[in-house]
Design a protein that fits this description.
Blueprint (H helix, E strand, L loop, with lengths): L3 H10 L3 H14 L6 H9 L5 E5 L5 H8 L3 E6 L2 H10 L4 E4 L11 E6 L12 H10 L1 E12 L14 H10 L3 E6 L13 E7 L4
Parallel strand pairs: 1-2, 1-4, 2-3, 4-5
Antiparallel strand pairs: 5-7, 6-7
Length: 206
């Protein structure tokens, strides 16, 4: 059975969507555009060689950059096609195939990063379970960083909106403290009407 992401990706980019997705960002980088905003955001908060879980890593763009910056990074995604692209490009990184709502790596990380609209692309009814699993994989005192669109204009076609209220409630239920919200990966001041959020949560110290 295909996931919500796979269905949307095939409808918008065809069967070779994983390769197309990776090539799109390579083309942007080749034109001189900055495609590393997520890694720069993380680097400003936690210095290498912190251990990072790239949750919903896709084709590995962010994980590869974090590895270049000296982080100990693991990538996990539910889409095997995306992981094949990631592993083909950077086989030395650990790439894992798993559903975030049932993730159990028996490991914790200094930072759990959830980018690329992973939150609204979750399967229906799995938000609370996913947030609990993210918290479970975070070191005490560690951070969970999530970035995603809050309206249709900032989401892939056909992707339902996850409200900030529902997301924050699920993170609180998972035992994570809300630290701060930004409007973008360049740390702009958060505007609820802006259509995008980058949130930082922390697992309390034990």
């Amino acid at each position: 059975m295909s996931t919500r992401w796979e269905r949307i990706a095939r409808e918008t980019a065809g069967e070779d969507y994983a390769r197309e997705y990776a090539e799109r960002f390579r083309a942007l980088a080749a034109r001189g555009e900055d495609v590393h905003g997520e890694a720069a955001f993380l680097e400003a908060l936690v210095r290498a060689p912190a251990r990072v879980l790239d949750a919903g890593c896709g084709t590995g763009r962010i994980a590869v950059r974090l590895r270049e910056l000296g982080y100990d990074v693991v990538g996990v995604d539910v889409d095997i096609a995306m992981l094949w692209v990631a592993a083909g490009d950077k086989p030395e990184i650990e790439w894992l195939w798993a559903d975030l709502s049932t993730l159990d790596l028996e490991a914790t990380f200094d930072v759990v990063l959830v980018a690329g609209n992973t939150i609204p692309l979750l399967e229906e009814g799995t938000l609370a379970a996913t947030c609990e699993r993210l918290a479970a994989h975070t070191e005490p005192g560690g951070l969970v960083i999530c970035g995603f669109g809050l309206d249709e204009a900032h989401l892939p076609p056909g992707c339902p909106v996850t409200t900030l209220t529902d997301f924050q409630a699920a993170m609180a239920l998972a035992g994570l403290d809300d630290v701060v919200e930004f409007s973008s990966w360049d740390r702009g001041e958060f505007d609820p009407a802006g259509g995008y959020v980058v949130s930082v949560h922390q697992r309390p110290e034990e």
